Amino acid sequence: MRTLTLPVGELGANCHIASREAIPGSGILPCVVIDPGAEAEKIDAEARKAGLAVELLLLTHSHADHLGAVDRLLDLWPAASLACSAETSRRASDSRLNLSLYLGFPLACRPAGRFIGDGENFAAAGLEWRAIAVPGHEPGELVYLAEGGKYAFTGDTVFAGSIGRSDFPGGDGPLLVAGIRRLLASLPPDAVLFPGHGPATRAGDELAANPYLAL
Ligand SMILES: [Zn+2]
Prior knowledge:
Elements: E1 2-8, E2 13-19, E3 29-34, H1 40-49, E4 52-58, H2 70-76, E5 81-84, H3 86-92, H4 100-103, E6 114-115, E7 121-124, E8 127-133, E9 142-146, E10 151-155, E11 158-159, E12 162-163, H5 173-186, E13 192-195, E14 201-202, H6 203-209
Parallel strand pairs: 3-4, 4-5, 5-6, 10-13
Antiparallel strand pairs: 1-2, 2-3, 7-8, 8-9, 9-10, 11-12, 13-14
This protein binds zinc ion (ZN).
């Protein structure tokens, strides 16, 4: 798998682009865009420059800094679709629940074309995916595993050396910590985690040294 990570927007949320590795003669490859938070034109340009066509947009959760570019990208890529949990889709279309009202740019994301449930396997961009529910930062949040758990797009659940806030509406700190522990224990120690903010890390490193998981 090949990944590109683009920090976008004022809050520097990570937009990740995932695709198969290009091989000579493979031409334009489909890709999955995870959490297109802002700067649709930049995301679009980087995808095109890498020889990628957007097949699917995935949202880990509904907070506005992770979805602000959804509508524009779906306009630019009319064949692409949007998928997330049903709860995330509901919250994403509400400017209070997606926090955009309080961030000063009220927006209502369009509804997802497809809902994904906890434990669901699906294929996209020639890759195998699995969704795992990790609530506690926000109800309905999904972590997306790719390639049998070798890679995990963790949204605002676990970061390198930190975890997501649990003081937003619907947040629950103990639930978040329990879900992260369960997730990381299920992954190979060298699984690469791509969080919604900050640098990539590894499952084993966070289990061993993340101070928020120590208790
Ligand atoms: Zn968030």
